[in-house]
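tl;dr need the bound structure. longer version: we got a ligand (iron/sulfur cluster) that a collaborator sent over and nobodys looked at where it sits. i said id run it. heres the input, straight from their email, havent touched it
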Amino acid sequence: MKNEELIKKIQELKKEKNAVILAHYYQVAEIQDIADFIGDSLQLSQKAAETDADIIVFAGVHFMAETAKILSPSKKVLLPDLDAGCSLAASAPEKEFSEFVKQHPDHKVITYINCTAAVKTWSDVIVTSSNAVKIVESFPKDQKLIFAPDKNLGAYINGLTGRDMLLWDGACEVHETIRTESILKLKLEHPDAKLIAHPECKKPVLILADFVGSTAAMLGFTAKDSCTKFIVATETGIIHQMQKLSPDKQFIVVPADETCACNDCPYMKLNTLEKLYLCMLNEKPEITLSDEVIEKAKKPILRMLELSKNVAK
Ligand code: 13P
Ligand code: SF4
């Protein structure tokens, strides 16, 4: 089927089934353009909590769809491709994680939203890259903290807040491959450009950056800043919205390495328009979770939403 036909059918199914399509900024442009709402991890969880649709179609990865299910358990949550995982979530299997938590009974557990629902059940509070600093700061200075699973984001927050959180050894396979050599080369070629980076990048990249922030924060920065050229150290999908918001500005994606011209998340990019259409038509693959997991995982997510009331929506 051609894209125009798929788009028409998806729109019909949306009405017929009272479905809402939530898409992360890392989705392919066609999916972003047909979505009812596009956002970063925090914005999407806020939307999932408040929607009155019967079906949530999550154009993102597995942990995001699980979060939507936890927040709206009575709704059917669909993910176009069940293999759309995340290297961060995979780095923290529940068994190892729960043992680690039990070994540190005096620590509170702060977990990045990029983790499985099972891991969320072992957490005191969930964070995203938009609200992590604010939430870490909400704990007393002398409170011992575990931060999992992203060691790069954790180290970045330790640096900003002066905390000494115990870090889980996980990383985003997309952001971790972004190298300073590639950035320095681009900076020499474009001395008038500002470098913006996602905090999942390694420390040497973040040190070079003019602005570090979540996907939505980077988008907002490029729209508001007077600079007209940006070197972008994150996943490629966000460029679509940056270019839409600022058509006269130039965006240069940092190549992950010399042999690769883009930083595409292999999991995010598993979703296609065709899979989106088929999952809406067949109402599967569906995300299912036990009542027990939903109940336990909901607490730290709700705590995050409560603590994020003034963070970008
Ligand atoms: P944010 O959407 O919070 O910026 O996170 C980026 C990411 O890697 C999502 O998987
Ligand atoms: Fe996970 Fe990284 Fe892909 Fe985000 S970009 S889903 S953190 S692997």
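gonna send this back to them w/ a short note. The two ends are 35 Å apart (CA to CA).
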